[in-house]
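Narrative of activities, Objective 1.

The group set out to show that a structural description can be obtained from nothing but a protein's sequence at a throughput compatible with the screening campaign. Below is one input-output pair from the validation batch, recorded exactly as produced.
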Amino acid sequence: MLAIVQRDEAAFSLLYDRYVTLVYSTCLRVLADPQLAQDATQEVFVRLWRKPEAFVASRGRFLSWLMSVARNRAVDELRARQRRQRRESPGADEVLAAVPDAAAADPLGAAHLAEERGRVRAALANLPPEQRDALELAYFGGLTQQEIALRLDEPLGTVKTRIRLAMQKLRRLLAESEGA
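Output recorded for this entry:
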């Protein structure tokens, strides 16, 4: 990132090659539309090139920050699209089936991503179902907490608490699995 701040195109190219598949699959999982996911992915990397100083290393890991940027960009696009047309996004299995094979382009990066995905899936599986459902609707469904409360027919405070508890537990589980 320091090299990118100095406008090193080779460093940016390396970073792009390493993370484009992960950013794309994150956007695709939220948007459920390959073209919109490609556009959102491009916007994430254009923003990164234009404002590399937005990443502050003291606030956390680069990968976590990049995934937050990707998710937020995809959710913004999803909300804009939902305002234009109200339709349901497909299930996780359909979205995962549409993700391109990363191993062909970067086997080492694909192995790292597969390991990360496995850790996240295992951590999600250890969440109580109510927390996992609320978290998935927020993160992968792009719904607001109010929309989740309406969909689940639960009080808004309950939804907020479930998401907060799920994030805390997920953070702890991922930290434990990283140390293992």
